[in-house]
Design goal:
Blueprint (H helix, E strand, L loop, with lengths): L1 E5 L20 H14 L6 E7 L14 E3 L4 E6 L16 H15 L5 E5 H15 L3 E4 L4 H10 L4 H8 L1 H14 L2 E4 L2 H7 L11 E3 L22 H5 L9 E5 L8 H9 L2 H6 L1 E5 L11 H16 L6 E2 L9 H10 L3 E4 L8 H8 L4 E4 L4 H8 L2 E4 L4 H13 L1 H18 L2 H12 L24 E5 L1 H5 L3 H13 L4 E6 L4 H10 L7 E4 L4 E4 L4 E2 L1 H7 L5 H8 L5 E3 L10 E5 L7 H10 L4 E6 L3 E6 L4 H12 L6 E5 L5 H4 L4 E4 L17 E3 L4 H12 L28
Parallel strand pairs: 1-2, 1-5, 2-4, 5-6, 6-7, 7-8, 9-10, 9-12, 10-11, 12-13, 13-14, 15-16, 15-24, 16-17, 24-25, 25-26
Antiparallel strand pairs: 3-4, 17-18, 18-19, 20-21, 21-23, 22-23
Catalytic activity: beta-D-fructose 6-phosphate + UDP-alpha-D-glucose = sucrose 6(F)-phosphate + UDP + H(+)
InterPro entries: Glyco_trans_1, Glyco_trans_4-like_N, HAD-like_sf, HAD-SF_hydro_IIB, HAD_sf, SPP-like_dom, SPS, Sucrose_P_synth_Pase-like_dom
Protein name: sucrose-phosphate synthase
Length: 726
């Protein structure tokens, strides 16, 4: 089995993980690295690739610019270019994810091997995973780590405005991507039952039968109880310098400086309890800092509140808050606290899983943790700690006092934790369960055929031009005549394709009426069907491919009573396309129609164009998906493909690595969000003249070449028209 793990944001490398550097470099980065190594240790897995975004930025380590980094003999980190070279937060990645998909597809094509399983981590990777899975027919596994709907609810509860949340966190796109991945994924792996019942249940595509709990593992080599043979712990002096009585037990809180981690409430609970202060000192490890004033707003606010709270309760000499620690020192921090006779606390408002709880337990520490989220499962399984309401400071202090003051109870918790972590939460146990659950999925993989099902002559061209038909190519007879001549002149090196919402029969009628030769490739019915050349050779593989999860009768039943939706005439319907006229004055918003289909567990693409048409097609079908499939079979780089269009149905053809043009008569508001993209040209001319303008703008045929052709042969010497047998 070849497993491809997708984790796109954050800074990921195989050593010295910069955990807590920012909100994007947290537990997920460690999880995926550990998972890759653990899976690669199994003899029944041949390769594990952890794919992330390549970052070339003087502000971060050059490690993140290396295209390939070996993790072990069978595991590696693969870094793929996407968007600007510099490091940017995940909320700014969305417009670059289509390029990531295209670059990753090109990488796999060059490697000559497709994975048997794609496993995406977080919403942005889910977006990429859905598109790669739908293109290549590879089973998709997903792990959310945190979910947008849950986060949005918590931010609203904290007093933030809904529009503010959506703008700052790109929440609408994130939630839409999460819905899409839940509708597509063959398996969703969660860390806890709470995650399934409380977080995934918020989604339209909530399908618990596709979900399984496989908790993350813990590295039992790194994390172990202190022994007499341990070397001195380097951080001891750095911690003790804060403390008046350094021999007291330590209460450890270790997390990012994030308001959700509830560190200030822990300080207040400690400050309000003289008994707890008499029993133990408090150790706060909250990321790394040189100067609090240089941190991002969230961390700066939390750490400023920490210092103010220490001062308000006059806790000097009782609290240690070192400014720096390295990731490899974290196991020593746990052992330092265990050696002191201390306790680990996670007081977070909510904790999706709680990997630090397992690390602490494996290091010989009893636990006190929030009752919201993953700790419920961990402490329920391990019987090694107490759960608390993170908003009840008195209860928090009482739980810590109970563990610290009752030595027999404390030792029992430690023993329980050590045994249960070894049996339930090792990476070896995780990898074994993982392999068992994904094994049946690999039988569903459908590798893309390598060449088109027709004369190989078509693959000896190094570029292609695809255009929508109505109102893009058509509309100006002189422009059409000049366009045909342009394509004929460059026929030796360029394929010509049409990508349209029309059926094949009506397309052929229009081509004949306007004197347009039959194209080399015809993508029809919104990407649901593909035919080649004047012989109209059908791509049977694509037809079988898009039939995945398609249930047209159920779609029609679901939409039959929706006001403002009127089925289009029969000539606009096809096997894989259900077409409606959409009246925006009567019909519900398109997102509500999409939600209706999702709640019926119908996994489809809903395509809205020009404000008046609404089409439903299979989840694997779209113009963009079909075009990328053809590009793969022809072996043409997407950077050598020019696409022309102008409605919402054309958007996914234009996103990513293709060159694109929106002709002047189709500068429609549906594509207004694409105006800033470098590879999308908004022409001044209309119809075919706009396409010719774009050809000149991109100098599209300037480097036109025929692989393996006689260098002395000129262009335009072949007089047959595009697509005809010659």
């Amino acid at each position: 089995m070849y497993v491809l793990l997708l984790s796109i944001h954050g800074l990921i490398r195989g050593h010295d993980l910069e955990l807590g550097r920012d909100a994007d470099t947290g537990g997920q980065t460690k999880y995926v690295v550990d998972l890759a190594r653990a899976l690669a240790e199994r003899p029944d897995i041949s390769r594990v690739d952890l794919v992330t975004r390549r970052v070339i930025d003087p502000a971060v380590s050059p490690d993140y610019a290396e295209p390939i980094e070996a993790l072990s003999e069978k595991a590696r980190i693969v870094r793929i270019d996407a968007g600007p070279e510099g490091y940017i937060p995940k909320e700014q990645l969305w417009d670059h994810l289509d390029g990531f998909v295209d670059n990753l597809t090109a990488f796999l094509h060059d490697e000559g091997r497709w994975p048997g399983i794609i496993h995406s981590h977080y919403a942005d990777a889910g977006y990429v995973g859905v598109r790669l899975s739908n293109l290549a027919g590879i089973p998709l596994v997903h792990t959310g780590h945190s979910l947008g709907r849950d986060k949005r609810q918590r931010l609203l509860a904290a007093g933030l405005d809904g529009e503010q949340i959506d703008a700052r966190y790109n929440m609408v796109r994130r939630i839409d991507a999460e819905e899409s991945v839940l509708g597509t994924a063959d398996l969703v792996i969660t860390s806890t039952h709470n995650e399934i019942e409380e977080q995934y249940a918020l989604y339209d595509y909530y399908q618990p039968e596709r979900m399984v709990v496989i908790p993350p593992g813990t590295d039992l080599v790194q994390f172990h109880p202190p022994t007499e043979n341990d070397p001195p712990i380097g951080l001891t002096a750095d911690v003790h310098r804060f403390l008046d009585e350094p021999d007291k037990p330590l209460i450890l809180a270790l997390s990012r400086a994030d308001h959700r981690k509830n560190i200030v409430a822990l300080l207040e609970a400690y400050g309000e309890s003289p008994e707890l202060q008499a029993l133990a000192n408090l150790l706060i490890i909250a990321g790394n800092r040189d100067d609090i004033r240089d941190l991002d707003e969230g961390a700066r606010t939390v750490l400023t509140d920490v210092l103010l709270t220490i001062d308000a309760y006059d806790l000097y000499g009782k609290i240690a808050a070192p400014k720096h620690h390295r990731s490899e020192e974290v196991p020593e921090i746990y052992r330092l606290v265990a050696r002191s006779g201390g306790v680990f606390i996670n007081p977070a408002l909510t904790e999706p899983f709680g990997l630090t709880l397992l690390e602490a337990a494996a290091s010989g520490l009893p636990l006190v943790a929030t009752e919201n989220g993953g700790p419920v499962d961990i402490i329920g399984n391990c019987k090694n700690g107490l759960l608390i309401d993170p908003l009840d400071r008195r209860a928090m202090a009482d739980a810590l006092i109970r563990v610290l003051s009752d030595e027999n109870f404390r030792r029992k918790l430690i023993r329980n934790g050590l045994t249960a972590v070894r049996d339930r939460y090792s990476w070896q146990a995780h990898a074994e369960t993982y392999r068992e659950r994904v094994a049946p999925l690999t039988k569903r993989a459908e590798p893309i055929p390598g060449t088109p099902p027709l004369r190989r002559r078509l693959i000896y061209r190094d570029r292609a031009l695809f255009t929508d038909l109505d109102q893009s190519l058509l509309g100006n007879s002189e422009g059409v005549r000049r366009f045909i001549e342009m394509m004929r002149t460059n026929k030796r090196c360029a394929n010509f394709g049409i990508a349209t919402g029309r059926r094949l029969d009506t397309l052929l009628v229009e081509l004949k009426r306007h004197g347009i030769p039959v194209p080399d490739v015809m993508i029809t019915s919104l990407g649901t069907e593909i035919h080649y050349s004047a012989a109209l050779v059908v791509d049977d593989f694509w037809s079988e491919h898009v039939d995945h999860l398609w249930n047209p009768r159920a779609v029609r039943r679901a939409l039959e009573d929706v006001p403002g939706l009127v089925p289009q005439r029969r000539t606009e319907q096809s096997r894989f396309k259900i077409a409606y006229h959409y009246d925006p004055t009567v019909a519900p918003p398109v997102d509500e129609i999409t939600t209706l289909l999702r709640t019926r567990e119908l996994t489809v693409n809903v395509i809205h164009a020009f404000g008046q048409f609404l089409d439903v097609v299979p989840i694997r079908a779209s113009k963009g998906q079909a075009l990328r499939y053809v590009a793969h079979r022809f072996g043409i780089p997407l950077e050598h493909i020019l696409v022309a269009g102008g409605s919402g149905a054309d958007e996914d053809m234009m996103r990513g690595n293709t060159l694109a043009v929106v002709v002047a008569n189709r500068h429609h508001e549906e594509l207004s969000q694409l105006v800033e993209m470098d590879n999308i040209y908004f022409a001044q001319e209309a119809h075919a003249l706009g396409i010719l303008e774009a050809i000149e703008h991109y100098d599209f045929f300037g480097t036109c070449s025929v692989p393996g052709a006689n260098p002395g042969a000129g262009q335009g010497t072949v007089q047959d028209v595009p697509g005809t047998a010659s």
